[in-house]
């Protein structure tokens, strides 16, 4: 399948993937960011490895993982900021 064909599949799946991701994130901006990450990854991965058996499930899984990674990064950055504040007060 070519990139334009993959893009068409992604356009069709996007609304359902966004709805399912929104149920996980409970915040539209977070869901949109996660789905965008998943779509971008699909456009990079699928032309080489082929379309997965269940593209919608693949996209939802990648979006959920992306959201989880963003949350972890945010927590790490917060804890680093707190540590820097403590060090600055010494």
Structure commentary:
With 90 residues, the protein is an all-alpha fold. It contains three helices and no strands. The chain has helices spanning 3-25, 28-49, 55-89. The longest helix is centred in the last third of the chain and has 35 residues, at 55-89. The protein is elongated, with a radius of gyration of 17 Å.
Question: What's this entry about, in short?
Answer:
With 90 residues, the chain is mostly helical. 89% of the residues lie in helices and 0% in strands.
Largest sheet: none
**Total beta strand runs:** 0
Gross geometry: elongated
Query: How far apart are the first and last residues' alpha carbons, in Å?
Result: 60 Å
Low-confidence stretches: none
Could you tell me the strand content as a percent range?
under 5%
What integer is the average pLDDT?
Answer: 89
Structural class: mainly alpha
Q: How would you spell out the order of helices and strands? A: HHH
How many H/I helical runs? 3
What integer value in Å does the Rg equal? 17 Å
Portion of residues in helices?
Answer: over 70%
């Amino acid at each position: 399948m070519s990139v334009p064909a993959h893009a068409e599949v992604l356009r069709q799946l996007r609304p359902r993937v966004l709805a399912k991701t929104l149920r996980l994130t409970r915040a539209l901006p977070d869901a949109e960011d996660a789905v965008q990450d998943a779509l971008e990854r699909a456009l990079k991965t699928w032309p080489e490895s082929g379309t997965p058996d269940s593209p919608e499930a693949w996209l939802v899984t990648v979006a959920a993982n992306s959201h989880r990674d963003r949350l972890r990064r945010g927590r790490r950055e917060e804890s680093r900021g707190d540590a820097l504040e403590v060090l600055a007060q010494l």
